[in-house]
Amino acid sequence: MVNIPMTKPFTISKGNMTMAKNIFIAITLTTGTQGYGEIAPFPALTHETQEDCHTKAHSVLGELIGLDVREYRAISAQLGSSLPHHPAVRCGIETAVVDALCREIGIPLWALWGGAAVKEYETDITIPIRATVETVTTACGWYQQGFRTFKLKVGGKAVDDIATLSAFDHAFDDISLIVDANQGYTVQEAQLVAKTLEGLRATVIAFEQPLDRNDVTGMTAITKHTSIPIAADESVFTIEDARQIIQERAANLINLKITKSGLLPTVEIASLCRASNMPLMIGGMIETRLAMGCSFSLVLGLGGIKILDLDTPLLMAEDPLEAGGYTYSGPRLVPWHSAGLGLVPREES
Ligand SMILES: [Mg+2]
To answer: pLDDT tens digit string along 137-172?
Structure first.
């Protein structure tokens, strides 16, 4: 188990975290090669806790002894039937499996997915829910470090959010915005906020999950009535969810997260979306560079993922991994070229 303090409390409409309470997994092949993965539960969103994940991981890891990591899809399917409701646990184990495989054969993890678009990418930076003044001053600090895409967490009282959004918009030139309500609004509130977003100077690239995850009809109504791109996040945990959102035109883009769906299921959701002309973004829970590096491997390997919300290591007070893997240069994520994820947890983690 690894507990990493956040530099500031991470507050969203569904809860608050001051500490990332995650778990690192290591698996060892018969050759001695090790692979690593991260379980990053976010109790308010996935109803998984660190303790629960720890118990579940222990119960299932024994079943994997003796399996062949080259059959990683079969392993993923087995995990899917053992732990259907623990995507974060599955994700951590799947990551360790593919990391071990790639280290064994000497390729970076993104090469396993095809190396479609290996280059630097820019991430957004998340501003958790705060009073208006603190929202603007926090963003100022990031702006000075080169960040130009801001993800504002909203979903409290719509009138307050609208005031914050307007103040924010006046404070910065030439920025892009993602506004994430984490299911916090009613249909009327969401429409009111969408109207505000249409009038901002900033380029609004996504209005994420305005409504409850199960209100697909409401999501369709919002998507139809605004020019702002609506993103489905909590509405899409599984491939069936993604299919429904696509069929009912309930969003303009889908936010992938390996921790909410599992790693290989995320690859499947991405394939379905691309075949259906559904644009993609990718984000995470409160993850270190281990889980986030795995998400970045999908960006580099699969291609076609345009919007990156891969910033949570920047919100942590420490990095529990040894140097290596992808790096941050201001808002840019720089790819790595060593085997697997190129990352090893520090001794004490
Ligand atoms: Mg979201």
So the answer is: 999 999 999 999 999 999 989 999 999 999 999 999
Q: Can you give the residue ranges of every domain in the chain?
A: 2-108, 111-334
CA–CA distance, 87 with 261 (Å, rounded to integer): 5
Cα of 120 vs centre of ligand 1, distance in Å, is: 23
Q: Fold for domain 111-334? A: TIM Barrel (3.20.20)
Ligand 1 centroid–CA 105 distance in Å is 35
CA of 74 to the centre of ligand 1 (A): 29
Q: Which two tokens stand for residue 336?
A: 């790595």
Using only C-alpha atoms, the chain has a radius of gyration, in whole angstroms, of 19
Decide: 80 and 265 in contact? Cβ < 8 Å. Answer: yes
Architecture of the CATH domain 2-108: 2-Layer Sandwich (3.30)
The whole-model pTM stands at 0.97
What is the reported pLDDT for 14?
76
Inter-residue contact 256 to 269 (CB < 8 Å)? yes
